[in-house]
Amino acid sequence: MSEYTTGELAKLAQVSVRTIQYYDKKNLLKPSHLYENGKRIYSETDLNKLKLILLLKNLGLSLKAIDEILDSQNSMKVMNLLLEQQLRYLHDQLKTSKNQIKMIEEIRHDLPETDQIKIKDIRDIENVMNNKKSLRKVHMTMLIFGFPLDFIEIGTLVWAIMKGDWLPFIIGMTVVLIGAAGLTMFYFKNTNYICPNCNTEFKPEILGRILG
């Protein structure tokens, strides 16, 4: 039967000597032979036991749980119960991680592109996210009402060219201009601006917005 020193065992298991010594201290892995000079000798069985310890540790089990498995007379049943418990824990962690990823993506999406704005507390992040969501609603509303205006404009223009009757086009363009003016006023009313230098939120005059 093969025998290994602490260093040889550590090399075979691809762990440090201190790890072997730590498991020895925790009574997880005792040497098969301990000589008077303190030299420790491990067997092939010890090597397999070490590999089992490392496997269970990589699965997320604590050293205490691993010790329960190794010391139990019904180790297979104990290991199955502990692994089932660990599996539930990992599923909960995965769900939490997915929620965190979703939240991170939403916050990053809603953060302003400028790097001049300083975040002082959680309310700043909440305000940014709420403002972004409100702005998206404004854009969606404009798209919903803007498509019919485009349809009227293009449809009456095609009718005028095909039929030679320009009256529907004139009426349609009047409706389009009124609708466009209404959407513009709606946008101006529901949006504010932030100065990139002083972070002050302001709402410019309509003339200034139009010229801008």
Verbal overview:
- The protein is mainly alpha-helical and 212 residues long.
- It has two domains: 3-94, Multidrug-efflux Transporter Regulator, Chain: A, Domain 2, CATH 1.10.1660; 122-211.
- The chain has eight helices and five strands.
- The chain has helices at residues 6-13, 17-25, 44-58, 63-71, 75-110, 122-163, 167-189, 206-211, and strands at residues 3-4, 33-34, 40-43, 193-194, 201-202.
- Strands 1-3-2 form a three-stranded antiparallel sheet. Strands 4-5 form a two-stranded antiparallel sheet.
- Strand 2 and strand 3 form a beta hairpin.
- It is rod-shaped and about 110 Å long.
- The model has no long low-confidence stretch (mean pLDDT 81).
- Keywords: DNA-binding, Membrane, Transmembrane, Transmembrane helix.
- This is MerR family transcriptional regulator.
